[in-house]
């Protein structure tokens, strides 16, 4: 089971970053054939092919079909149990993740036009497919978190594990670096804002003349998730929305429409539907700026001036990051970036690091701050950043003193795997699992069923 789970975690990571139209273009094979299912969740032949393609795109050797299929079935079991246990993911989180993924894909293909031509589908069709994939992955991750949320490790467990490793088998740790950054987002130009305001004003006037707000939201709103529901955001508790949006919404009476409201997400036209105690239900039409046309000159000038102060020691980098960085994920930690795989502040200085970052660090000295650099956040927003080369750890043999965090993470992951293993032993008895006879020799999750789904 542990090897199954490990391959599943690797596979879902690959599927998050990979984007290839190749899997949908098979010839002579029915890629829509159902080859496995867990309750009402299905694995198609195309899912297996896509998984194989994802490894190829990352220049990694794919496991055999049995292991790949088992990883996919594990995902479906997680989804089936999420449904049974009423585990959900907020629509806004799904939309944010999807927008970031879509921006990444457009960046990889060079333009929206290239992406559409490669897939043979419209952007909206791609978003619709992508939304389903993102939701499934986030639900699976939420279930994993729920299963392992209470798993903790003690210092004694870490020491016991380390002391049990033969001295001649201690791992060799390659060079690692700790870096921080200060990020300033690209600004919307006055011309872009004016263009968006004119478009929203025209939509507002159409509503005032009697057209249905919900229909216009469906047609024009760039918040894809809510647009499908006539712009409806559902009931939200106070404090859940950004301040600008909530402040405008709460000034309205039911069925009343706001003036144009600006937030970090773009420009909104808001209609209040209902207030229920501490909750309110609103719908909106959102227009976003074109992130590829934003103005980088202002954030670049700002960071250039801030760098001068940091280099002159008039302000410490950590304080500057807390006070001025617009990357919410790192600002409170003084700008320090954590490795996405290990969650450590140290990351390997090797070929797996982002190439631009690797080459930049190669020209810097420890303790130095880079010149302002163009940068793109995970959600696709354009930005400029300063890099701080905080420290470098030389290659060395692992020790409890220098590598406690890494060793603790190994012990923690082992305990989490054990917890997930125990959970799956129970889950497979709660979920109906069926595998196509073509894969009967794989014995997916120990299943011996061979009748077709």
Folded structure, characterized:
It is a single chain. This protein has 453 residues and is of the alpha+beta class. The protein folds into 3 domains: 2-152 and 406-446, Orthogonal Bundle (Triger factor/SurA peptide-binding fold); 175-187 and 295-394, Chitinase A, domain 3 (Roll); 190-288, Chitinase A, domain 3 (Roll), CATH 3.10.50. It contains 16 helices and 13 strands. The strands form 4 sheets. It has a 4-stranded antiparallel beta sheet with strand order 9-4-11-10. It has a 4-stranded antiparallel beta sheet with strand order 5-8-7-6. Helix 2 (45-57) packs across helix 3 (65-84).
Quick description:
This protein has 453 residues and is of the alpha+beta class. It has helices at residues 2-17, 45-57, 65-84, 91-109, 112-119, 123-148, 155-163, 190-208, 213-220, 224-227, 243-249, 297-311, 317-324, 328-331, 355-362, 404-430; strands at residues 34-38, 41-44, 172-173, 176-185, 232-237, 261-263, 266-276, 279-287, 347-348, 373-376, 382-393, 396-397, 433-435. A hairpin with a 5-residue loop joins β10 (373-376) and β11.
Low-confidence runs (pLDDT<50, min 5 residues)?
A: 13-29, 448-453
Amino- and carboxy-terminal Cα gap: 23 Å
Helix content: 40-55%
Q: Determine Rg (CA atoms, Å).
A: 25 Å
- Describe the largest sheet: 4 strands, antiparallel
Shape, per Cα inertia axes:
globular
Text of the CATH class of the largest domain: Mainly Alpha
Q: Average pLDDT across residues?
A: 84
Question: What is the fold named in CATH at topology level of the largest domain?
Answer: Triger factor/SurA peptide-binding fold
List the total number of helices. 16
* Major beta sheet, strand line-up: 9-4-11-10
Structural class: alpha+beta
The CATH architecture classification of the largest domain is Orthogonal Bundle
What is the strand tally?
13
Keywords: Coiled coil, Isomerase, Rotamase, Signal
Protein name: Peptidylprolyl isomerase
InterPro entries: OMP_Chaperone_SurA, PPIase_dom_sf, PPIase_PpiC, PPIase_PpiC_CS, Trigger_fact/SurA_dom_sf
Organism: Larkinella rosea
